[in-house]
Amino acid sequence: MRMEKKIEAKSNTGTDSFRIFEDFYHKYKNMYFNYILKFTNNYDTAEDLLQESFIKIADKFHTLKDPSKFKSWGFQIVANTCRDWYKKVKREKVVYTENIENFEEKHDPVEEETSTGEVKKMIDGILGSFLPDEKEIFILKQYERMNYEEIAGALNLSKRTVRRRMKSAVVKVKAELTRMNFAAG
Amino acid sequence: MKCKNIREKLYFYHYGLLNASQTGKVENHLLECKTCRKELDLIRNRTELFNAGDKEVKVESYLDKKILSRAGEILREKQPGFVFKSYKPLILKLGLASVFVFIMGILIFRQMNMNNSAGSIVLTRHVIINDQEVRGRMHLKKEAGITVPEGSSADIELKGSYKIHLYEKTDFFISKSRDVDTYINMNSGSVYFSVNRRKEEMKIETLNSLIRITGTKFRVSVNKEENSTKIEMVKGSIVVQNKFKPEKSVVALAGEKVIVSNRDLPLIIRSEMIEDPFKEGAAPAGKYKERVYLKTGSVFTGNIITQDGDEIIIDTDAGEIKLNNIDIDRIEYIK
């Protein structure tokens, strides 16, 4: 609590609030970016949405009451930006092709076995079959290893809603992974 | 049969989606059943596939730069909010907010007033403002070119900020500008300035000199024929600069006289104090009287208060009289 007060007092000048913002930015940018990347499955879109999110964060930075809650506060803005993007894409009926090969060529190409490539394709297929509501929760659970309480906080949802949506995501995961197992076996 | 039921639930168990009693049942069963334990291991391995090829992608530095520079701009604009939110109690917040609004209101009102007029003017005789003959008292607009004819004089006053006395045969331009509160350009004649240090910053330009002041009393006289400017100090200090040789500037103190000619460094001479036209008993502007002769032959003596379009109001011993401009034959000035 004392620490928070200190941060607040320090942030009275523009440069100080920028310094605090910069600290937060470097601490969470990669986490936010990876979330957006998984949500959109498109590198360029993810860059655009990350920028849009941080501009919104800067714009609302003065409303952040408790700097220790920056992570989830900022994440709500990131998640909303992703949801807005999804709605827009849906409305415009733009089909985003998931160009995984290109993405990997561009960013740190790794020699991969065909089977790994197929697994990735399947995983992306599963993620692509999720509704955005399910997808955002699944990404946080599976990749960010957050618990349901944290997810509820980050997405500003009730714990019940989070669990319900996760359940419907897990039903899809279960079906796909079981099918794959039969195919492999 | 029991195993089949448990296996149905294993994915949900793995993701922590079962309630306490169901979790208990599954865990009890797992302790006993090796097959179901194996099945759970399989599920763990399969779901790990999600993370298998996954590694953290780093944000590239060009994007960092782009985002941080935009955010910096926004944060600088949004600064005041941060100060405000530290005051937690609502009452204090509301109180501060209303005080803030009140002060802003006053400041904006003042700013508007200041911007709309350069001051009010009191005339003794008559002057020409923006090519129109004016008598009596009137408000100056943001900009005004004032010519004071022979035998006349005028006072300009902006309450609390400055008093300016224009002597006869003065050609004078006053305006409110952005970089300085009041800008004055003098072509000829003499002007006495009494400026309040705290409120007004004034810049005076003559044929050959620039004078920048924040508060003092002095008289500036311009001699067009000799192309020289004379500044007589009464109070305070000012910096006088030769317009054509900006490096040649001097500081003049009370009781000194500065003469600026085109070529030289401003010359400082000790001189006698001049009379303050705003000092009590120093024949203030309003003490002169006008005698108005009408075409009909009538004569009125008094002070012209205002000239509004075609009408002139003159304050005589018998009270205020309204006269029509076209009825007036001539106006004479008496002491």
Topology:
The complex is a heterodimer of chains A (185) and B (335).
Chain A: H1 2-10, H2 14-40, H3 43-60, H4 70-92, H5 100-106, H6 114-129, H7 132-142, H8 148-155, H9 159-184
Helix pairs in contact in A: 2-3, 2-4, 3-4, 4-8, 7-9, 8-9
Chain B: H1 2-14, H2 20-32, H3 34-52, H4 61-77, H5 80-85, H6 90-116, E1 119-123, E2 127-129, E3 132-134, E4 137-140, E5 143-148, E6 154-158, E7 162-166, E8 170-176, E9 182-195, E10 202-205, E11 209-213, E12 217-223, E13 228-235, E14 237-242, E15 245-253, E16 256-260, E17 267-270, E18 289-294, E19 299-308, E20 311-316, E21 319-324, E22 328-334
Parallel strand pairs in B: 9-10
Antiparallel strand pairs in B: 1-4, 1-6, 2-3, 2-5, 5-8, 6-7, 7-9, 8-9, 9-12, 10-11, 11-14, 12-13, 13-16, 14-15, 16-17, 18-19, 18-22, 19-20, 20-21
Helix pairs in contact in B: 1-3
How does this structure look, described?
- The complex is a heterodimer of chains A (185) and B (335).
- By secondary structure, chain A is mostly helical.
- Chain A folds into two domains: 15-110, Orthogonal Bundle (Rna Polymerase Sigma Factor, Chain: A), CATH 1.10.1740.10; 114-185, Winged helix-like DNA-binding domain superfamily/Winged helix DNA-binding domain (Arc Repressor Mutant, subunit A), CATH 1.10.10.
- Chain A is 78% helix and 0% strand.
- In chain A, α2 (14-40) packs across α4 (70-92), α3 (43-60) crosses α4 and α7 packs across α9 (159-184).
- Residues 1-13 and 97-113 of chain A have low confidence and may be disordered.
- Chain B is α+β, with helices and mostly antiparallel strands and 335 residues long.
- Chain B has four domains: 2-52, no CATH class; 61-115, no CATH class; 117-270, Jelly Rolls (Sandwich); 288-334, SH3 type barrels (Roll), CATH 2.30.30.
- Chain B is 28% helix and 40% strand.
- Chain B has helices spanning 2-14, 20-32, 34-52, 61-77, 80-85, 90-116; strands at 119-123, 127-129, 132-134, 137-140, 143-148, 154-158, 162-166, 170-176, 182-195, 202-205, 209-213, 217-223, 228-235, 237-242, 245-253, 256-260, 267-270, 289-294, 299-308, 311-316, 319-324, 328-334.
- Chain B has a 17-stranded mixed β-sheet that branches.
- In chain B, α1 (2-14) runs parallel beside α3.
- The longest helix of chain B has 27 residues, at 90-116.
- The radius of gyration of chain B is 40 Å and the shape is elongated.
- The chains are: A mainly alpha (185), B alpha+beta (335).
- Chains A and B meet through α2, α3, α6 and α9 of A and α3, α4 and α5 of B.
